[in-house]
Write a structure and sequence with these properties.
By secondary structure, this protein is of the alpha+beta class. It has 27 helices and 16 strands. The structure holds iron/sulfur cluster.
Length: 626
């Protein structure tokens, strides 16, 4: 086998046992790695109904099929049952862990059970050990990471949780190498529930490649092309940090809890690219382990800034600036950069944290929440920068109202018993910083995405507003884009590298000797999506009720270029588009469950009985609702 190690690490924390399992090439051919391998393992080993924070849940760290082998293939997929949505969730992070894992001799780590005492896992050169983590339990991410690097290897890549994950905040994330986050789905809380503070990994040798010379040639070609191509120029200059100028001008920003998606240029610029460039650290070099897998685009912008008399370093991103800043109505750059620093240190999902705080501030403005419920926090509403700072602390430590907010916006609104119509999420996953009313049919991506409201599951095109034509027209393009994004997540390739599927297929064939085609890669994406959907339905998902969008996106945009635009023309338009999505996926056109013949076509005959049960379940649940 080429390009893979054919080995995964099994770590049982209840028994404190580690073993190595061999995986056959046919599994990789069908699932590629990353998202596919992780989803397959969770599907087979974590039965529907399992509580995400119980020892029976598992968490998989899976390198992609090309991780570490081609330019920009630096991602690792983290897959588990999400404490936020109770669906199989995959979240992806860079920049060194995936390649290091492969070099350490493993394609994935599967963590099961739960330890009694805090531990971390140290993986290196084909071996692994469980080590005590008492002295770093309770520590912020940077201190814990530094301690582990000192105890292990200066080149180790470390995935760690902060106090939020330890405290089982459902919006906790996992931070890799100080600044990169597997942000979504609350997977930091899954690590916390297993008392697993961190995983450190280092390795020196990539698995063998079938055609090394040809791969070297292709590596150079793609690297040079993407390092200079006009299509990557904006990302090379600003990273993602100029996003708010774009989303604000299109009427797609999350400003003021999605109440003002359009914001003027002067306001958006306060949290955008030029502010980041002013604070760049000259000559800053990311850690050696990150540099060991070259990226032609290099989007990371490390900045130094001062807040309340102290200096901090952080690597901002558009989603962080927009969700912690624009969504909460705070447009002061250094304050928002400090929130970014805080959520990294506590290990909180910046999108979910910003979204949930923004929701609370709207309740405050509308006087739907009393001061006594805020435990002494005198929040004034949008733009109250002190309140946002305190709320982040309270969420991480589950103090006062922070304990409710740490559950995420959907649960928080149910617990408080108000404001559900103001909560912006799909299936329990908070919406990110792209309001879909500014683009035709974008909302269908959120409604049908496997994990809930994610901005990384493909967009339809052409998508210029207004929503004058039927949304169903754009469904084929959504599927095409979704499959492309998903293939990147299977291969561990960063989505900012503008490979086409032909390029990825050529690279994968050069590495492995397989005969993949863009079409066969798309099929892998459909295969993984089908499994995730069946598992979700066998658990709780009732697609006709749950593949939907939040009430706010039915309100016409108040101003800007998308003024008057709703997420869809009307409900009928949405339902027809959704039905078209189901049909083109080979799913039941009303119930949204993969059909037996689709599973057979995808080589998933073994899942047919599950799909039949899932179909019956949906039928029954709908009967009860009627
Ligand atoms: S473009 Fe940015 S996120 Fe993507 S691999 Fe390069 S540095 Fe990492």
């Amino acid at each position: 086998m080429y390009g893979y190690n054919g080995r995964i690490l099994r770590v049982n924390l209840s028994k404190q046992k580690i073993r190595v399992e061999e995986i056959g090439e046919e599994v990789y051919e069908k699932f590629l790695g990353g998202k596919g391998l992780g989803t397959l393992i969770i599907y087979r080993e974590v039965p529907p109904g399992t509580k995400p924070l119980s020892p029976s849940n598992k968490i998989v760290f899976a390198a992609g099929g090309l991780s570490g082998l081609v330019p920009g293939a630096r991602k690792v997929a983290v897959v588990s049952k999400s404490p936020e949505t109770r669906l199989i969730h995959d979240s992806h992070a860079g920049d060194a862990f995936g390649p290091m894992l492969k070099r350490a001799g493993f394609d994935a780590i599967v963590v099961e059970g739960a330890s009694k005492d805090p531990v971390y896992l140290w993986v290196h050169d084909g071996e692994a050990e469980i080590r005590g983590a008492e002295k770093i339990w309770g520590k912020r991410v940077s201190e814990a990471t530094k301690t582990i690097v000192n105890e292990t290897d200066p080149n180790a890549s470390v995935a760690a949780i902060g106090p939020a994950g330890e405290n089982l905040a459902r919006i906790a994330c996992i931070i890799f190498d100080y600044t990169r986050a597997a942000g979504r789905g609350g997977l930091g809380a899954v690590m916390g529930s297993k008392k697993l503070k961190a995983i450190a990994v280092v390795g020196k040798r990539n698995p063998p490649v079938l055609h090394p010379e040809k791969l070297e040639e292709l590596f150079k070609k793609y690297y040079e092309e993407y390092a200079t191509s006009p299509s990557t120029e904006g990302t090379r200059k600003y990273g993602t940090n100029d996003g708010l100028r774009i989303s604000g001008s299109l009427g797609m920003s999350p400003s003021y809890n999605y109440n003002k998606p359009y914001i003027p240029e002067e306001l958006a610029s306060k949290l955008a690219g030029e502010e980041v460039l002013k604070r760049l650290i000259p000559g800053f070099k990311p850690p050696e382990n990150v540099r060991s897998t070259p990226c032609p685009v290099k989007c990371s912008k490390y900045i130094r800034f001062k807040y309340k008399g102290r200096e901090y370093t952080v690597k901002p991103e558009y989603e962080n600036l927009a969700m912690l800043g624009a969504a909460t109505g705070v447009f002061e750059f250094d304050a928002v950069a400090y929130y970014n620093y805080l959520v990294n240190e506590y290990g909180l999902d910046s999108i979910a944290t910003g979204n949930t705080i923004a929701w609370l501030l709207e309740l405050v403005e509308k006087r739907l929440v009393g001061l006594e419920e805020l435990d002494g926090l005198e929040a004034k509403g949008f733009g109250d920068k002190e309140a946002v700072e305190k709320l982040i602390e309270m969420i991480a430590h589950k103090k006062g109202i922070g304990a409710i907010l740490s559950e995420g916006v959907a649960r928080a609104s149910r617990i408080l018993g108000r404001g559900e119509e103001l909560a912006v999420h799909v299936k329990g996953l908070e919406a990110p910083a792209w309001d879909p009313r500014g683009r035709r049919t974008y909302a269908l991506s959120y409604a049908t995405a496997d994990v809930g409201a994610s901005h990384l599951r493909g967009w339809p095109h052409p998508h210029m507003p207004p929503n004058a034509g039927p949304a169903k027209e754009l469904v084929p393009s959504l599927i095409e884009s979704r499959d492309r994004d998903s293939v990147f997540d299977h291969l561990g390739v960063c989505k900012f590298i503008p490979y086409g599927l032909e390029d990825l297929s050529l690279l994968l064939n050069t590495v492995t000797g397989w005969n993949t085609t863009p079409e066969s890669l798309r099929e892998v994406s459909a295969r993984t999506e089908a499994l995730a959907r069946i598992h979700g339905v066998l658990d709780w998902l009732t697609p006709p009720q749950d593949d939907t969008i939040p009430p706010k996106w039915w309100i016409p945009e108040p101003e800007g270029p998308a003024k008057g635009n709703k997420a869809f023309i009307d409900e009928q338009d949405f339902l027809e588009a959704r039905r078209t999505y189901y049909e083109l996926r080979g799913w039941h056109s009303e119930y949204g469950v993969p059909l037996p013949e689709t599973l057979e076509k995808l080589g998933l005959e073994w899942a047919v009985e599950d799909a039949k049960r899932a179909l019956l379940l949906v039928e029954k649940r709908l009967e009860h609702t009627l």
